[in-house]
Amino acid sequence: MFPKKNQNCHLEIGHLIEWATLSLATNSSSPRLDAEVLMAEITHYPRSTVMAFPERMLSQSVGESFRALVELRGKGVSIAHLTGHKEFYSLDLKVSSNTLVPRPETEMLVDGVLSQTDPLQAASILDLGTGCGAIALAIKKQRPNCRVVAVDLSLEALRIAAENGCLLGLEIEWLCSRWLTSLGNYSFDFIVSNPPYVERGDVHLLSQELSYEPSLALDGGLDGLDSIREIIASIPNVLATGGMFFLEHGHQQALDVSKLLEEAGFSGVKTKNDLAGCDRMTLGKWL
Ligand code: GLN
Question: So what's the pLDDT on residue 19?
C-alpha cells in the first residue's frame, strides 16, 4: 500500500521503491528498474544514489508525484514518455508523445553509416523520418564534418528534434517533408531511414505500450511496406552514384525489402540481424 498522509516516516525512498516494484510486477518486465528510474527522475538524484540511500526521506508532495508516475507506468506509458527523455547512442534525447521512443536496435543504422565513413570525412547524409532526431544527431556527433539533413512529416516531432540539436550543440538541417516530396535539389552519399513498418493489423500496434506512440511513426499500411515502397522508389533521385542506403524494417520483412531494393537497381543488398538475432536492417549500394 502507498503510505497514507501524515505517515511521513514511511516516505523513505527504499519503502516507496518496494511499493512501486510490487505494484508494477504484473504490468512491467522490469518493475524494480522502472521504480528506481522513476525515483531518480522525481528526486533528481542519480539512480546510484537512489539505490545506495534507501533511508532518505521524501516530502509528501514528492511522494505523491512518484505515485502518479508509477500509476501511469502501470497503465503502460513507457518510462521514456514519463521522464521525457531517452538515451540513444550515448546521447540524452528529449522525446514526447509526438515522437517514437528511439529503440536500441536503431543504433544499427548509425553503426552502418559510421562503418562506411571516417571521422574526418565530409559526406552528406539524409535521415528520412527523423522523429526526435536520434539517428541524425548520433551520426553528426560522431562525424562532425558531415552535412546532415533530417526530414519528418510531423512538425511537432521536428520541434523536439531541433530542440535536441540545440541542447547537444549539433547542427542539422531539419526539414518538414513527406519523405522526399519537399526536398528540392539535393544529392546524398548516405540515406538512412527508420520508417513506419508495422503491419496495420498487427496486434502489437494495439498494445498498451505502443498506444502512447504516434501511429504516424509506426503504421506501415496493410503489409507494413507502404512507406518503405515509397522511399525506395524515390531515393535513387537523390542518392549519389556509389551512395548507400540503410533501412530499418520488421523482422519478417527482409526478403520483401531486399527484393524491392534489387528491383530498384541497388547492388550489394544485405540484411543484418539486431542483437536479438532478428533481421532488422537491410542496406544497398546505388549502382
Ligand atoms: N521497432 C518499432 C516497434 O517494434 C517499430 C518502429 C517503426 O515502425 N519504425 O514498435
Answer: 96
